[in-house]
Amino acid sequence: MNLDATIARLRSKHDRYVSELAEALRIPSIATLPEHAQDMQRMADWLARQMATMGLDNVAIMPTSRNPVVYGDWLRAPGKPTVLVYGHYDVQPADPLDEWHSPPFEPRIEDEYIYARGASDMKGQIFAQLKAVEAALAEDACPINLKYLIEGDEEIGSPSLEDFILANRELLQCDVVLNCDTGIHAPHRPSITYALRGLAYFEFEVTVPDHDLHSGSFGGSIRNPIHVVCDLIAGMHDGNGRIMLPGFYDAVRPLDDEERAQLREAPYSDADWLALTGAPALYGEAGFTTLERVGARPSLSVNGVWGGFQGEGAKTVLPARAGAKISLRLVPDQKPAEAARQLRAYLEQNAPPECHWELRTHSLGPGAVMSRKSPYMQAAVKALETVFGRKPFFRREGASVPVVGMIKELLDVDSIMLGFALPDDGIHGPNERQSLPVLFKGMEAYIHFLAALDTIERAG
Ligand SMILES: [Zn+2]
Fold first, then answer.
1. Alpha-carbon distance 72 to 57, whole Å?
2. CA 103 to centroid of chain Cα atoms
3. Domain limit, last residue, from 311, 333, 365
4. Rounded CA gap, 339 and 183, in Å?
5. What is the C-alpha to C-alpha distance for residues 448 and 302, in angstroms, rounded to an integer?
6. Do 179 and 206 share a domain, yes or no?
7. Is position 275 within any domain?
8. For residue 459, is pLDDT > 60?
9. Which of these, 359, 353, 315, 344, lies nearest to 208 by C-alpha position?
């Protein structure tokens, strides 16, 4: 492909691109608020128009049970790899509004940042990818095949995506996914996330009497459900921070020495972690570093506990019920449904017979780990290195991006996470922003990524 001409074209359009991005940021496409239904449609229309104008084929706004998916493709490179670009055009609500220094849907530029809801998560990212391809197409220099899946429900948990993918498996077939909903470590320090933890969320409730009782008249004669909940929670870890659900670690993929060495290249110190958290000391599973604990090892967190009297002063109640919300962060190759069975087995083995208990599942999402050695990953590494002048370091992310695991499960392809948000962009919070110099570097990185894919021989 004609790399130099493509990049020169892109650089010449800087101001036009900024004003186009601002157009997208003015549309309050908040998926969760019904009063923005029209804005969701406007945003989908805006994207579809962009995609058609830049020369993609088969651009379509495809209905789902919630907000539509915007699809488009460019399949004119026979024999070359097909990349499915994933993104979302919905944004988080903007409140608290009074904490914004300027209105969230009136983009403002200050110190080379553009401030607006969705600037970083993720209209900026998807815009950068589209502009890279637009420049390549204008130079007649797109070396690979592309498909786009831009959903409108990500910030509400992608409730429509699984059905959409299942119904359009053929259409979405690809060699790899480019997931742009991500970022790098710092403006001069690129990084690539290659693993994500899954999330399984539960709630359990313990009942003893069938109504609240006087703790004087009845205390000491029956189980107290709060005590039972506390005992159950206490038994979920041993003294070394290991999770005690039966069989919990059986499927955990171990780290080899090479991967551990790579993870140590991250610019990280335990002192930073203490400063980030404000905790007086770190604590976690023995035998692992902090980054390994959050990236490569599973964790069990109690997210809430309830029961009994919470008001001011004293009330002598022996409550009828108590409960807890529990989330498991899972790593490959743990299966969320298996983890649910393990939690149930733990409760069966450990809940005392003098109570009733009930376990409810809120969500089950798998984790994912991508090959660091695949030609696609190597293409991303090379692209970042070329543009930022420095080899990216590999990182495992403790949080979950459910769509990556979902796509792996449904389409059996890896995702390459390549996006240009920064950790201090304030996504989901007030004054969300995107660094424009980083975003323009990102456009160039996307072009280098395409160019590097040109050399890949498709396997089969
Ligand atoms: Zn996002």
1. 6
2. 26
3. 365
4. 30
5. 44
6. no
7. no
8. no
9. 353
Span 278-305, pLDDT tens digits: 999 999 999 999 999 999 999 999 999 9
Domain range spanning residue 441? 3-196+367-453
CA-to-CA dists, residue 222 to 86, 135, 215, angstroms: 55, 73, 10
Token reading at 162: 């699984």
- What residues have a C-beta under 5 A from ligand 1, the ion? 121-122, 181
The beta-strand segments (E) located in 248-367 are 299-307, 317-318, 321-330, 356-365
- 460 Cα to the center of ligand 1, angstroms: 33
Q: Rounded to the nearest whole angstrom, what is the distance from the C-alpha of residue 123 to the centroid of ligand 1?
A: 9
Distance 422 CA to ligand 1 centre (A): 12
Predicted local distance difference test score (pLDDT) of residue 458: 65
Quick check: is 290 in a domain?
A: no
Q: Per-residue DSSP letters for 15-75?
A: HHHHHHHHHHHTS--BTT-GGGHHHHHHHHHHHHHHHHHTT-EEEEEE--SSSPEEEEEE-
Ligand 1 center to 183 CA (angstroms): 10
Residue finishing a domain among 318, 348, 365:
365
Q: How far is the CA of 121 from the centre of ligand 1 (A)?
A: 4
CA atoms within 13 A on the CB side of 345: 11
Distance CA 452, CA 80 (A): 12
> What mean pLDDT comes out for the span 78-93?
96
User: Do 361 and 380 belong to one domain?
Assistant: no
Q: How long a stretch of residues is the chain?
A: 460
Residue 189 shares a structural domain with residue 213: no
Residues 1-19, mean pLDDT to the nearest whole number:
93
Tell me the CA–centroid distance for residue 295 and ligand 1, in Å: 19
Residue type, 423: P
